[in-house]
User: Which sequence fits this backbone?
């Protein structure tokens, strides 16, 4: 992907130039990786007018996760472990006679910002804002391929778990087993902490697994994701344990399934992000579920598990093609449990078949 990394850096350089900055300092790890191909711990990328430099606090370890550095990027390693790579990177500008620098103010701490000013007092600092994040929204097909493989790994791990004996096992045990299976199938690791909720814990967004054991008749909700070559996916499913589901479980599941389908069907290029949220939320609201709903029906995924665009009531902007997103409505009834259904999809035009579903584990209400 060296050529693609170079194209990305050129696009960002053009943005900086148009805003009056001759160079840019990238410190957010996902943005460093997006532009340079690698993001060793604490490394920063200095985008110069004629040369790009990755500044690291120590030598690169080829075995460590973080990607492979684009050969066109110069590597500058700090001696020992002393010094701040961001400050050292700005110090390199004094040799290039650069007078303006764009920085990611939303990522820099106040003290780090002050240190940068002190080492280069004559360099005018500007805010790059979310410039790199905006470039990251629309994915190329190689990025989508990585997310697709991550989704296949997550589907495999979940499918294997469903074939095992579940009654009597704790939420924590099941979560750890899922994360082990992700790695066994080729993932870099989990995309985020795996959530397993049983009984009254089911359907909670971001539930942290406990030592509660799976019981007959429980709702079991699982939310997991895999990371593959830095790219992440997300899948969430809800099942019933042991016996045929109760009437209230069927009714609640069908409602959340209908909301999730409405959200998925709204994923077309040009659709306002808030309209995707509205499509799913209205289904739930029509059945009287207006309290305790997720702040957003979905979000973008990529090098981070929660990226733009946000599919939320107050979200601005419209969807583009080739944007991977989640659609993940859920309802939780206090003391009883709930349902959460979560897929990763890629926005595609109708001419290409509409939204591409990446997470394909069945959404049928199974009794396990």
Assistant:
């Amino acid at each position: 992907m060296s050529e693609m990394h170079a194209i990305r850096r050129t696009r960002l350089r053009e943005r900086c130039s148009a805003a009056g900055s001759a160079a840019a300092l990238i410190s957010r790890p996902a943005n460093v990786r997006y532009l340079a191909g690698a993001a060793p711990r604490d490394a920063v990328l200095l985008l110069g007018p004629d040369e790009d430099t990755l500044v690291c606090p120590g030598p690169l370890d080829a075995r460590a996760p973080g990607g492979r550095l684009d050969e066109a990027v110069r590597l500058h390693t700090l001696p020992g472990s002393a010094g701040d790579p961001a400050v050292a990177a700005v110090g390199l500008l004094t040799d290039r006679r650069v007078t303006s620098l764009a920085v990611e103010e939303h990522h820099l701490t106040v003290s780090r910002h002050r240190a940068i000013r002190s080492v280069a007092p004559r360099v005018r600092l500007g805010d790059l804002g979310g410039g790199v994040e905006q470039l990251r929204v629309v994915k190329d097909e190689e990025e989508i391929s990585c997310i697709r493989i991550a989704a296949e790994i997550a589907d495999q791990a979940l499918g294997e778990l469903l074939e095992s004996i579940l009654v009597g096992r704790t939420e924590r045990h099941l979560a750890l087993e899922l994360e082990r299976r992700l790695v066994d199938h080729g993932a870099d690791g989990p995309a985020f902490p795996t959530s397993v909720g049983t009984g009254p814990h089911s359907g909670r967004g971001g539930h942290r697994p406990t030592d509660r054991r799976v019981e007959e008749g429980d709702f079991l909700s699982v939310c997991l994701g895999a990371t593959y070559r830095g790219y992440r996916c997300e899948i969430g499913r809800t099942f019933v344990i042991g016996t045929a589901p109760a009437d209230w479980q069927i009714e609640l599941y069908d409602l959340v399934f209908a909301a999730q389908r409405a959200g998925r069907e709204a994923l077309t290029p040009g659709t306002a992000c808030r309209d995707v949220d509205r499509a799913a939320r209205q289904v739930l609201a029509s059945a009287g579920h207006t309290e305790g709903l997720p702040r957003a029906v979905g979000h973008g995924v990529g090098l981070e598990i929660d990226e733009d665009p946000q599919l939320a009531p107050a979200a601005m902007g419209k969807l583009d093609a080739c944007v991977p997103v989640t659609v993940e409505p859920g309802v939780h009834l206090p003391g009883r449990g709930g349902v959460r259904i979560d897929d990763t999809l890629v926005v595609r035009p109708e001419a290409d078949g509409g939204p591409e579903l990446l997470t394909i584990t069945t959404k049928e209400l199974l009794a396990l």
